[in-house]
Amino acid sequence: xxxxxxxxxxxxxxxxxxxxxxxxxxxxxxxxxxxxxxxxxxxxxxxxxxxxxxxxxxxxxxxxxxxxxxxxxxxxxxxxxxxxxxxxxxxxxxxxxxxxxxxxxxxxxxxxxxxxxxxxxxxxxxxxxxxxxxxxxxxxxxxxxxxxxxxxxxxxxxxxxxxxxxxxxxxxxxxxxxxxxxxxxxxxxxxxxxxxxxxxxxxxxxxxxxxxxxxxxxxxxxxx
Length: 224
Prior knowledge:
By secondary structure, this protein is of the alpha/beta class. The chain is about 25% helix and about 30% strand. The chain is built from four helices and 17 strands. The protein has helices at about 5-10, 15-40, 40-55, 215-224, and strands at about 65-75, 80, 85-100, 105, 110, 115-120, 125, 130, 135-140, 160, 165, 170, 175-180, 185, 190, 200, 205-210. The strands form two sheets. Strands 1, 3, 5, 6, 8, 9, 11, 12, 14, 15, 16 and 17 form a twelve-stranded mixed sheet that branches. A hairpin with a 4-residue loop joins strand 16 and strand 17 (about 205-210). The protein is globular. The model is unreliable at about 5-10 (pLDDT under 50).
């Protein structure tokens, strides 16, 4: 069994100089590939600059976030974007509303398409490698009650795990948890939790299929 660096050091061993240099060389190569990719693609470079100009100071923003078009950021809460997030607001803006004390977090390499709206009074979390379709709506609180319409119900966090696909014009209601590698069909209204590796469709959304492999999930999502 190979010991970790900390375990080696605790036993009086240290990683070799060549081992450290190998990691540094590999990291430099990765950085160089990323820089060359930006240089070769002016549209990507423009999207990276656009994100810094429009979002910097309004949200937690790594340098790798790309914004195509426009974004609307409102509220006094916190918005956090992970590495490599792509935001597409070239037709209509993408919208994030984090009310005072609330938090919206978007995991690394997730893609959010134009017209999508995410609103949080408490917390909305979207995992890594998620795809959010056009005009999707994700909210953690309804704006008014059913019986007492002058009183809004309390917020309930929305948790969307990694590798989730949400189709165009789908609605995710407060308190919902969507398991990893699941697909939400276009136009669906999600009113209850979705297990991992599931396809749900309809209003209200219901499970129509369970996936055994990631390939099955990707094939179904691509056809929606």
